[in-house]
Design brief:
The protein is an alpha+beta fold. Helix content is 42%, strand content 32%. The strands form two sheets. Strands 3, 4, 5, 6, 7, 8, 9 and 10 form an eight-stranded mixed β-sheet that branches. It has a two-stranded antiparallel ribbon with strand order 1-2. The longest helix is centred in the N-terminal third of the chain and has 34 residues. The chain is elongated and about 90 Å long. It starts with a strand and ends in a 5-residue tail after the last strand.
Amino acid sequence: GPGVVVHPLTVKGRLAGALEVPVSGTPQDEALAAALANHLSISLENIRLYRELETLFRQYMSPDVAASLLADPAQAALGGSLVELTALFADLKGFTTFSERVSPGEIVEMLNRYHTAAVPCILRNGGTIVQFVGDALLALFNAPARQPDHARAAARAALELQAAAAQVSAEVAKEQAAGLLPPIEWPKFRVGVNTGLALVGNIGSPELRGFNAMGDCVNTAARLQALAEPGTVVIGAATYRALGVPADVRPLGELILKGKSETVHAYVLNSLEGAR
């Protein structure tokens, strides 16, 4: 049969494939084949770049936020809207003491280990993590993705997070007993969950912005978390009412929270299965 001309397809200077074209003999056809090979190389490189960008994008922001921005870039506009949501706020009690006694590398290792266990609990329940601040994280349920049962989803995520963190603590205790880790007590998560209206959207400047939520609902979630005992979940009254089924809770009564003029009803959430 007729001979073929092989044009290499390259990505970042490396061979990624080949375009085989039958020898026609006309310079125009050869030039066309060379141009096609060049365009295919550029297309392959663009696909690689897009995949790399998408991976980075999803690793540096919550998958729900990344997906909604990729689908509709207009959602990146500055501004926000009032949304009823459930906010989950978690931080590590004892973090400061721990930080003073270990190296920066050990702090990072501890945080990453806890967050590796905690983050999937939030994501698999449909939550969106909007920020990590040192040892704390804030997650939203019902924004940007809509969730009809957002209070229950957040409560479930909070309980799963504490169970995952307890497992990490047990593993750490074993490693400390074996002399693999310094015998310094690791901090423990405390979690606050609250339901209400919040201003949700993009906050920042034209050059740099972040997806976030602001308002009394979010502040109260942070306050409830601050009074939770390590290893427990405290929920606000609106979250408790929105759970939809009886849950195993311990009422904390009326609480006076920092920065709030009115008292707040709150509960320690033991389980979503109902009181035994």
